[in-house]
Amino acid sequence: MARPIEKQVIETAATRVVEDTFRQLCHVDFSAEPVVEEKDIIEYNGNMRLFPMDKFNGQAYIGVINYYLTQKDSDEKFPVGTFVMYVKEDIAEKLVKALGRSAREAEDELTVLSVVGEFTGILGGNVKNELKALGYAELILSVPLAYKNVVPEGVLFDYNLFKKQEISFSFWKQKCVVVEACIGPVPRTAL
C-alpha cells in the first residue's frame, strides 16, 4: 500500500516550482528564504477550511487545484491531494502582467481571478511533474478555482490527511505568496 508523500518531498517540490516559475515568468528571485511550517488541516463539513486573510493580515486572492489518482476519482470528487496558492492583493497585478496581460486588465477583478487560477494551475502542474520525475504515478489535475478573500465552503481534500505543508515566499522584499499542499498516498512507478 502506498504511503502519503513525505512532507520533505512536498516542501522541496513546491519550493523549487515556485522559485523557478517566478524567476521565469516574473523575472524575480526570493528576497528571503521560504518559511516552511507543518499545519493541521481544519475540516468543516468534509472540506478543508482556508484562512486567506490570515496569511497577509489583509486581502488576498486564492487559487486551488486538486490532484486525483484516476479519472473515476476525479469524477467522484475524491482527491488524493490539494494545492492552494494565496497571493497578496497588491501583488496580483504583477502576476497579471507576468502572464502578458495589460495594466488595464490588472485592474479588472475577473481578470485577476482568472490569472490567479491560471497561475495556480501552472504551479500545481509543475509540482505534479516534479513528483512524476521522482517516480510517483501520474496525477490528474482539477480545473483551477480562484477566489478573493474567502472560500466559504472550503475545498476538497483527502479526508485521511490531517496535516498540510505551508510555505511562505517573499519576493519584492515582502511576503507575498503562500502555498499550502497536502498529498496522500500516491503509488511509485518504475523509473
Principal-axis shape = globular
Order of helices and strands: HEEEHEHEHHEEEE
Helix content: 25-40%
Number of helical runs? 5
Return Rg in Å.
16 Å
Q: Assign the CATH superfamily.
A: CheC-like
Q: What fraction of the residues are assigned to beta strands by DSSP? A: 25-35%
Number of domains: 1
Q: Please give the largest β-sheet.
A: 7 strands, antiparallel
Provide the CATH top-level class: Alpha Beta
Mean pLDDT: 91
Structure classification:
alpha+beta
Please provide the count of β strands.
9
CATH topology: Chemotaxis protein chec
N- to C-terminal distance: 18 Å
Low-confidence stretches: none
- What is the CATH architecture assignment? 3-Layer(aba) Sandwich
Describe the SSE topology:
Elements: H1 7-26, E1 32-40, E2 43-44, E3 47-48, H2 52-56, E4 60-68, H3 71-75, E5 81-88, H4 89-98, H5 109-133, E6 140-141, E7 145-148, E8 163-171, E9 174-183
Antiparallel strand pairs: 1-8, 2-3, 4-5, 4-6, 4-7, 5-9, 8-9
Helix pairs in contact: 1-5, 4-5
Written description of the protein model:
- This protein has 191 residues and is an alpha+beta fold.
- It has one domain: CheC-like (Chemotaxis protein chec).
- The chain is 34% helix and 29% strand.
- It contains five helices and nine strands.
- The strands form two sheets. Strands 1, 4, 5, 6, 7, 8 and 9 form a seven-stranded antiparallel sheet that branches. The protein has a two-stranded antiparallel ribbon with strand order 2-3.
- The two termini are 18 Å apart.
- 35% of the residues are buried.
- The mean pLDDT is 91.
